[in-house]
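Q: What residues go here?
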């Protein structure tokens, strides 16, 4: 009798489990797949943040000090001038709503990336950095052109003084020394990367000149910008890209069929 009762109890328990299984399993699946609440997301984010802070080494601590944060924001505030300073050459020629120095630097940086990307002899990262810093001094001294009455020597000293100040402002932990070194490398123009980026500086200028001509938003001729680059290309890429720009310009200008021919004759180089 005892054995019979135990067997009956086991059968009843098994039947009850089978009866409730279809209801509990989907419920469990739903629990696993339902969207997390906003509170759980906040809890998870806090957990990750705490873990990241705990993983920070003592060596990293100086990099987020209040003094380095101040230096970083001081520097970035200074670079606001690059966004608001209009390029002098376009102002002199009566271009309406001319680009800023930062506009010029941004497209130059893109040019540096794509022009060096497939050339194993060039350091693409360095090309990008050179383009980013090449006009950085203009955040303080402005866009000085040959028509401003400032000698090349005085211009260089003014910009060098500014770059030294920026380097000291940032310090080594915020790339101050590297930025100064890159600027000097660009100014000297002897490395393959610097030669390319100097060509890109001119290419971006004549490309912008052609675009202003196409838009008809200038009062004076922009021919001088093209003439100023003839015979000054340092790289084959610079010359070929310039030919492409001038060729497209020629197609837009009637009675100017000699533009490409005359330009090609001035290939030259430094």
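A:
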């Amino acid at each position: 009798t005892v054995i019979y009762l135990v067997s009956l109890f086991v059968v009843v328990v098994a039947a009850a489990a089978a009866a409730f299984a279809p209801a509990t399993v989907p419920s469990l699946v739903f629990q696993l797949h339902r969207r997390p609440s906003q509170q759980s997301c906040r809890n998870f984010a806090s957990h990750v943040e705490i873990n990241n802070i705990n993983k920070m080494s003592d060596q990293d601590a100086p990099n987020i000090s209040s003094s380095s944060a101040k230096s970083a924001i001081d520097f970035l505030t200074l670079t606001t001038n690059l966004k608001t300073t209009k390029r002098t050459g376009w102002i002199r020629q009566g271009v309406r709503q001319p680009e800023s120095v930062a506009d010029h630097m941004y497209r130059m940086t893109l040019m540096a990336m794509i022009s060096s990307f497939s050339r194993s002899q060039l350091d693409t990262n360095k090309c990008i950095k050179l383009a980013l810093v090449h006009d950085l001094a203009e955040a303080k001294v402005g866009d000085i052109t040959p028509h401003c009455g400032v000698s090349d020597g005085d211009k260089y000293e003014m910009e060098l003084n500014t770059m030294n100040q920026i380097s000291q402002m940032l310090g080594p932990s915020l790339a101050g020394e590297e930025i100064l070194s890159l600027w000097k490398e660009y100014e000297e123009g002897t490395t393959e990367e610097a030669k390319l980026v100097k060509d890109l500086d001119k290419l971006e200028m004549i490309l912008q000149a052609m675009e202003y001509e196409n838009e008809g938003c200038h009062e004076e001729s922009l021919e001088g910008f093209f003439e100023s680059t003839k015979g000054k290309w340092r790289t084959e890429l610079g010359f070929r890209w310039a030919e492409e720009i001038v060729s497209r310009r020629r197609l837009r200008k009637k009675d100017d069929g000699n533009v490409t021919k005359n330009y090609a004759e001035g290939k030259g180089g430094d």
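A: Context that may help when evaluating the design: The longest helix spans residues 2-33. The chain is about 70% helix and 0% strand.
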